[in-house]
Please model this.
Amino acid sequence: MNLYFLLEDEKSFLKVLPLWLKYMNFGCSRVADIQNVQENNYILQSGQGVTQLITKVLFDTIDTILLNPGKIDKLVVILDAEELDAEDRKERVNTQISEHYDTEVINFDIVVLVCNRCFETWLLGCLGLYPKSKVDKASDFYPYYSNYNIEEYDPEEMIPPEDNKDTIAKYHFHYLHELLRFKKIRYSKNKTRNIATESYFNGIVERIDVTDHLKSFKNFYHFLLSISEE
Amino acid sequence: MCERAKHVKIQWIEFENLKTGLKIERVNFNSDVTLLVGLSGVGKTQILKAVEYSLNLAVDKDVILRPYRVGLGILINNKKYEWFYEITKINEDELIIKEESKYEFLFEKLICNGTIIFERKNEKITVIGYDKVPQPKKDESLISQYSEDKNLELLVSGIHKLYSVEIEVAVRGGIVSESFNQLKSKVTETFKRNKNVEFKIFSHLPVAIKLYIAKRYYPELYIKIFDAVKELFIEVEDIDVEEDSIREMYLVSIQVYGKKLLQRDISNGMLKTIYYIVELFTMSKDSLVLIDEFENGLGVNCIDILSELMLSERNDLQFIITSHHPKIINAIDKDKWRIIDRDNCIVTNSGSLDYGIGNSQHDAYFNLINRWEFEGKIG
Model:
């Protein structure tokens, strides 16, 4: 089984995904380019943002796969829902593909996975993150802490308070950033070391086992599981 | 009559800074365009500087010597010249060392089509055609010292043709009125003597005076320049050179909506674009153009048009360019790239094919960025 992952993300998720696959014993190893694909390989590339991905990179990738028949079994496109409804986002991609290609020509699977809101939303799902003792009002994290309990409620459902001008996805990023800073853990889109550990990943997986939260992560995780079982 | 240098191209360079230990492995250049791509700090600019320094050193006796070991390949009229030199620090045990003469040539060798033209190693020196030669100056290249020799004439005239253009430094400058007026009268005299003088004799002059000459004496050339500027800035009605009486300087000016704007009122990006265009059309034949970070200071609307103009308008020029901009990287054929990398002090390079780029339908910039990400160089 050979896969071609195309990510909207160009920083954190792109860095973390290969590690997650390793923790899952995914069974495929990463190669740089379609020419290097043999057996049980995957390519992982970033579309450098959603606009470029769905208007250009997606088509270039499909063309590349079509010109290298037999190399790729599945193209997996992973996008953030951000302010859109996750299903809407998925639909837009599928429409783009069907408008540009004769579906009979496409002899490989295309799977579109949507990360509901953004990568940081999934990261907020790791069990045990939310502080157990009261947070001081003077703390930079307090406004986030008091707005939403990400342990008790689903991080995917979190919206910013009315006086916050951030978009939902930005708010999720800032929430995570302040929460981790409060716990003296450094996180930025470039510095992913602290959230890329196996125990952090297991914390998110545990969350979908014990609650019905993070449906989009569950979807993503189960898809990868099904591949590694194949 | 000596042979005229017609087709002059830099073929390769290898460079070592003996003080810092930085070593640039041999980089081969294309005869038209070479795009040096690579992450910041890998040594792209150093390559341009090494080329520029060596060309100056070859023919100019006033260049300050630096502790470098360099090899340079130049092709002139199908003759392959290979020049190697090493400059070293003078024995520091000597008590009195003048600041400017701290370095001297330790080694120098010139080969033409496999034949050694000259070689010096410490005190020992051989020059083709001579049994015995007087001890040359140690602080000047032999190319410069023997520039009149028949075996070197072609090389020297070839190197003089390869004048490298650096536009960045000049863009806000002007020409003081006094020297501008002197130049003007020299130009007038030149035309009095010979009406059909070719523009190339003015090619080395500053942009403002070239523009002045083109507008008054070479209408076809001026129209080319004007049309290219107009393609980018539709509102421009005229380009000229005007005196700024306060600063007593001659500067580039444009006319927009019937109003004259002096250089100081023109935006940086627009001015730089105009300078590029003037240089591009007025540069003498076979020039070598070195441009570091081509996109710097250029508007997004100008970058692709200017790079297209550069690649299509002057096939005789040899460009060596560095850039980080997707539009430029995508505009230049992958075959023309050298991908620059660095392993400690060693600057390495490879072509896009050796690098495994170009196997997919994605654009070149996409492939490059994703390859660097795969290799853990960016993220």
About this structure: Residues 126 and 136 of chain A are 22 Å apart (CA to CA). The mean pLDDT of chain A is 94. The helical segments of chain A are 12-23, 50-67, 86-100, 119-124, 142-147, 168-182, 198-210, 215-229. The interface with chain B takes residues 10-11, 14-15, 30, 32-36, 44-46, 48, 56-57, 60-61, 63-64, 67, 190 of chain A (CB under 8 Å).
